[in-house]
Amino acid sequence: MTAEILxxxxxxxxxxxxxxxxIADFVxxxxxxxxxxxxxxxxxxASVSYVTAKGRTCQELGMQSFQHTLxxxxxxxxxxxxxxxxxxxxxxxxxxxxxxLPKHIxxxxxxxxxxxxxxxxxxxxxxxxxxxxxEEIFPPCTPAGIQELILRSGTPTDGAEVVVVGRSNIVxxxxxxxxxxxxxxxxxxxxxxxxxxxxxAEHTRRADILIVAAGAPKAVTAEMVKPGxxxxxxxxxxxxxxxxxxxxxxxxxxxxxxxxxxxxITPVPGGVGPMTITMLMRNTLRAARLQVEGRS
Length: 296
What we know:
By secondary structure, this protein is of the alpha/beta class. It is built from 10 helices and 11 strands. The N and C termini lie far apart (42 Å).
């Protein structure tokens, strides 16, 4: 058996084509162009690359992009004042503060200061609560991308055994909540594993759908996977450089080994990654609809 590759680039491109049409229709109907404000504090190379990609995608889809690039020496108060201005700016429908922030800035204070109806990352406690009770407006972007990959690959979730490896607030917890809801693309039986889980392989071998966000390269190997399972690898780990000097990446799954066992598998890169920015764009359109039309 050789697993089918779940091509995140291809699926993301299809969703973006749908979004471009929805955005054009929204602009024509309302005269309002959805706007996303990104805030980058410092010059972390990965963050710079990510924010640049967000701005480029906004333009490709017909949305406005407002980029705020600020020095690492920016004070917490100055950042809070910027967030307040963006909360009140009617051209800005979504706000994304790129994490991590410099150590002298308390991330929770900044996230909590954001208008929940502009929190397109879905990290504000109000949006976390909405997610938990099944009334989410802005599901966190990476979990939303995972769910779309599962849906669009034709993978049934009703009654499926799902095992999530990792319990972060960004991926592990929210995807577990999303897949247990009484909704299309959910209704699964979900187990969450983490660093204190005993006999991890006993859990992972039960999974019809295995989602790995462990934060460690090749943490899941072939003998830990049920034959025919759908394996979603969320990890991106730098394990060296290529001959040309580019970063060499590996997921949290031993791709070569697991591909011989699984039914479907996401590659790294090119799997979950392209979906994350796409879901951010979808959330920004939802935010614009909420603020202009009173619906998401």
